[in-house]
Amino acid sequence: MQPLNTDKQHITLLLDEQRVALNVRREKEPVYRDAAAMLNRLFRKFMKMDPAASVEKLWMYVALEVAVNLHDDAREKNLQPVNSKLEEMNRLIEEALADSSAQEYKIQS
Fold first, then answer.
1. H or E element at residue 109
2. From the CB of residue 35, how many other CB atoms can be counted at a distance below 10 Å?
3. If DSSP codes are grouped into helix, strand and coil, which group holds residue 53?
C-alpha cells in the first residue's frame, strides 16, 4: 500500500460531458475547476458559432483561443518591466525639463 499523500487530492472534472480524473495539489484544486469551467464556456461558444463542427474541431478552436490568450498574457507580462522603466524615465525627464525651465526663467529675469 502506498503512503497517503496529504498534499494531493483526487478530483474529477467534466469537460464536454467527458469525465477527467486527476490527482492535483490541494491548493491548485480551485484553479483546475476554474480552468475546466473556462474550457467548457469556450467549447459552448464555438459550438454555437459552428454547430456542424466535429468535437475535435471545436476542441482545436478552444486550444487555439487559450494559446492566443496565454501568448498575449506572457507578452504583456514581459513588457511590464519595460513600461515601468519608461514611466520612471518620463518622470525624470519631466522633472529635468521643469528644473531647466525654472533656471532659464531666473537667468532671463
1. none
2. 14
3. coil
